[in-house]
Amino acid sequence: MARPGGKLRPTAKYAGRRSFAARALDLLQRLTDRLIDFGIDGLVTTVMAALVLFHLTKWASRRLRDSLLPGSAATQHQLFPLLQTEGLSPETASLASGPAVSRSACNPRPPGRPTDPDQPAHDNDLRTAQTGTCRGIALAEIARDSAAQLPCDADPTMRLYSGANLDAAQPGHIAYFDDARHLEALRITRAGACLVAERFAHLVPQGTIPIIVQQPRLAYARILARMHPEAVRAPSLLGSADVISGCFVHPTARIGAGVVLDPGTVIGEGVVIGNATIIGAHAVLGPDVVIGADCWIGANVTIAHCSVGDRAVVKAGACLGQDGFGFATSRSGHFKLVHLGRVVLGNDVEIGANSTVDRGSGRDTLIGDGTKIDNLVQIAHNVRIGRRCILAAQVGIAGSTTVEDDVGIGGQSAIAGHLLLGRGAQLAAASRLMRDIPAGERWGGMPAKPLREWFREVTTIKNLAKRRSGNSP
Q1: N or C of the chain: less Cβ packing under 10 Å?
Q2: Cβ atoms of residues 301 and 318 within 8 Å
Q3: Active site includes 122?
Q4: pTM for the whole thing?
């Protein structure tokens, strides 16, 4: 109701103000709703556009790859299940599937890949890869000796002259592949042939012949030894089968036929050396040492109180048959224990460079047939090592420990004395063993324990450290 003079009553004036505020608030709310709707629509549109662009790019790249490498899409579908079982991602499988070709069908050999201008063609490389007087080995011989399968389109008369790693191999070389981690090296290899397990045969690239074997690494080792017999063991420095002047040979020593003694060799009283053995320069064989046939003793090797079987290899600087570390202690000092035992090496044993094997004190120190010992290994007195064992570099075994057959010991492991490592046991690298290992078990750690137990402890400590660092200021 208006007052005289045209002015509104106070109640009406306040009502008008509230009505204006309500309209402004309603307008602001509608504007906010519009902005939110626009933002959501824009985000959805952006995401959809990105997805469409991603799929278009993927489709275009697939079509381009299919046009350049026929059959690659089918090979990719075959690769995915295999590589997932090998622990690889589909991205890695896609990378590997590009150059791969299936060898299951008896199709004609695809044309070789283009080569660098300085690199001869495939067939010419077979001649230029020949080294020295090596005549190479034909694929037919490799297949026969390795019980291997050749593709139907392979030329059985093709010859290979040497071996090399996948990434360094040339057409005159043979390589091998047995680990999915090396897919990239296989993808770019130019090897003439590749030893491969059947499940990986379809990954071998064009221009390389897949040779299917059960154990590619073993087959490669045997083929390489046949290609390069001179590299299996080092030859004499002078390359002659003779007792060379400049050596000292005791009159009572018995030297077999075809033995080679390099300059500076010392052969003691009563030494027996079997046929076709090579003794390197400045090696010293003490009294009554027996060396079997077809052995190779490297330069600067010292052997005493020792019997070595046939086909043994003792590399440069090794020392066999010295006294072990044994003393009786008293207040006045340490009194040395007399060592009366020997070192006995079986057939086909290999002792690495600068390794030492001490003679026994109360019994002989024994190393069984086929055992391979790396460089810088210490074998103490009275230790007994079985057959076909593997000891990596810098392993140390204290006195009177027994290592049964087929045991593997990782590098830099230390083993206390008077222990037993059961048949087939394995000890991880850098372990410290203080207890016996039952047969067939895998141990590791410091101090060593079953691997699963050690892994659980390491994981628990790692998680605890993470929690503590997360709570720290």
Answers
A1: C
A2: yes
A3: no
A4: 0.67
